[in-house]
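Much of our argument rests on the idea that a fold can be written as discrete symbols. In the encoding step, the backbone of a single protein was reduced to a row of integers, each denoting a local shape. We regard such an encoding as a compact summary of how the chain folds. The record that follows shows the chain in one-letter code together with its fold in token form:
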Amino acid sequence: MAELSGLPGPVAVAIGVFDGLHRGHQEVVRAAVEHARQHRGTAVVLTFDPHPATVLSPERVPPLLTTPGQRRRLAAEMGVEHLVALPFDQAMAATSPEGFVEGLMEACRPLGCVSVGYDWRFGAGGAGNVHYLMDAGARDGFSVYGVPPVKVDGRVISSTWVREAVTAGDLDLAATLLGRRFGYLGVVQRGRQLAGQMGFPTANVRLETQVHPPQGVYVGEVTLGGEKRGVVCNLGRRPTVEAEGALSLEAHVLDWTGDLYGQEIEVRLSHLLRGERRFEGVEALFQQIRLDIEAGRRWWEGFRGKD
């Protein structure tokens, strides 16, 4: 927790795994942000890497919705400049609730508040919970927020539910649960540049997360230079040009001519145009790509007009 020691206090810490940083997680973070604002302190998101299940129950490790970089960017959008990812290993798993809280208090000068989900558990054997934190806070002088669940249609929002929605291709439901469109954050790499030779260059985004909607051609958006732009992108394995291609995301930014190679961009998906399929040859594929871009542009212009 050494990264916490240099931050001006009081330090308000939102703690959790926060995979996805969905609307329920956001309420936990907002409680810490509000406390820091009121007390002129520093808000911090404290998370864990790798996912604790990797150590505690490796046979049940969930596929990840977000990378640490994505969580950092999303936290920044909420006004949190500091995200600390604690290494979760056997030593961390064996730390007692008392030891964990003592470590927080020693690192934060001073610890102003701890914000967690209502059902968050911590410490060896999951012995610590929000009630333990409240007792410790009353004794040692820091506030504790046990944030109640956020529900949609009577069901508690969870990362599991978001994964279910994304893999089923229900991007509208996923957006409702996340409070934003599902997307990918990655570095643009050089690909085979076949599409560029035909006049519609694509940004090949390296995929680092493990949850994906059905393969196909999507309309989405990317923010470049502070401006939202439409994209038409293929999420798939490129069966027409590669026999056993790896899953990739190739995004054509509408009406964009800049060089994106080496840049980190986030592509958020809005609408499925069609499923991925194999074409008889490259020329047939390119004819379809032209149609996809035209359809994507029409959809994007209609979608943007509703904002």
